Description:
By secondary structure, this protein is an alpha/beta fold. The protein starts with 8 loop residues before the first strand and ends with a helix. The protein has eleven helices and seven strands. It has two domains: 132 residues, NAD(P)-binding Rossmann-like Domain (Rossmann fold); 93 residues, ProC C-terminal domain-like (ProC C-terminal domain-like fold, Orthogonal Bundle), CATH 1.10.3730.10. It has a five-stranded mixed sheet, sandwiched between helices. Strands 1-2 form a two-stranded parallel ribbon. The radius of gyration is 22 Å and the shape is elongated. The longest helix is centred in the last third of the chain and has 22 residues.
Amino acid sequence: GKVSASSILASAPSDKNLDTWRDLGCRTTRCNVEVLQESTLVFLATKPHVLPGVLQEICPAVGPHHVIVSLAAGISLQTLQQFLPTGTKVLRLMPNLPCVVQAGAMVFARGGGAGDGEVALLKDLLSSCGLCEEVPEAYINIHTGLSGSGVAYVYLFAEALAEGAVKMGMPGGLANRIAAQTLLGAAKMMLETGEHPAKLRGDVCTPGGTTIYALHQLEKGALRATVMDAVEAATKRAWDLTKD
């Protein structure tokens, strides 16, 4: 709601992608340079292997008034700046899937040409999509392993929670809804209380109660170590993509 649809101009090579933007009331084009001619804030949301060609195409149209924001995984600020005029205001942003429902987790890093004004603008616009934090660029690949890929880890855990309930006799639809609400409530408590998850976990446990028995089983299955290994594996893969 921060920007009217009519103020947005989207460019893509085919109507397959542009139809969605038209349905939202946005203007569309198949000319990337036209976006630069009519816009100040430009988001580059392409596949990584496509981005260098797009940067070469738009470079002559980029001026000192433009703010360029890249969402391409694995493309460093240094690479972006090499393709664009010296001093261009460049930022690198990494969102995650729940941005679609305005509950995303996003981090971004600024290039040498971007100042506090550009950072404030980006944070203000993206605050409606969820959590948005400025970080050193080195954290972006870690964010990919933690949150970008981490959404899938949570879905796997939610599926396992629900299937456990189904095994014990609960209908699948109800189990899925309760599992989702359980994750939502736990996450909200972490954000709103600011407490360490270990503290909140301890608050749920009572001596000899159901929770400590369940946690014992999770520990025997090495849940924490396995999840840590997953974050590490995804982060390392993100680093490999950056090198490629």
